[in-house]
Amino acid sequence: MRRAAQPPDSRVMRVLYGVEWAGLLLISIATIVAIGQETLLMVERGEVLLQDILLLFIYLEILTMVGLYFTSGKLPVRYPVYIAMVAIARFIIMGMKDMSGWEIVALALAILVLALAVLAIRYGHIRMPYGE
Q1: Rounded to an integer, what distance in angstroms lies between the CA atom of residue 20 and that of residue 13?
Q2: Each residue of 9-42: b (16+ CB within 10 Å) or e?
Q3: What is the pLDDT of residues 32-86, one digit of tens each?
Q4: pLDDT over threshold 60, residue 4
Q5: Which of 28, 33, 79, 90 has a C-alpha 20 to 30 A away from that of 66?
Q6: Are 49 and 56 in contact (CB under 8 A)?
Q7: What is the SS3 assignment for 44-84?
Q8: Is the pLDDT of residue 6 over 90?
Q9: 8 Å CB contact between 69 and 24
C-alpha cells in the first residue's frame, strides 16, 4: 500500500524558490548582456540587418517571459512557442542561400505548426479556462 506524498518542508521550498529566482536573474543578466553585444556588433558594422532585429525580438521575448514569471509565478506555454517561431524565421533568413527549397518549405511548415499550436492553446484557454 502506498503512502500519500507529504508536502515538502518549508525550508526545502525556500531553497527551491531561491534557486529559481537566482536562475531567472542569471537568465535576465545574460539576455541583457547579449542585447548589448548585439548592439555593439550593429554599431561596429554600421548597419542593422533583419536577422539582427529578429534576434533582438528573441531577446525581448525572453525578458518578457522572465518578467511575467517574476510577477505572476506562471509561465504561459505560448511564450517559448513564440520564441521558437522567431528563431526558425531568423534561421531561414540567415541560411536561405545555402538551403534547398524543400528545407525552406519544411521550416516554414514548422512555423505553421507552431502557429496552429498557439491557436489551439488560446482556443483552449477561452473555451476551457483553468479553475482557480
Answers
A1: 10
A2: eeeeeeeeeeeeeeeeeeeeeebeeebeebeeeb
A3: 999 999 999 999 999 999 889 989 999 999 999 999 888 887 777 888 899 999 8
A4: no
A5: 90
A6: no
A7: HHCCCCHHHHHHHHHHHHHHHHHHHHHHHCCCCCHHHHHHH
A8: no
A9: yes
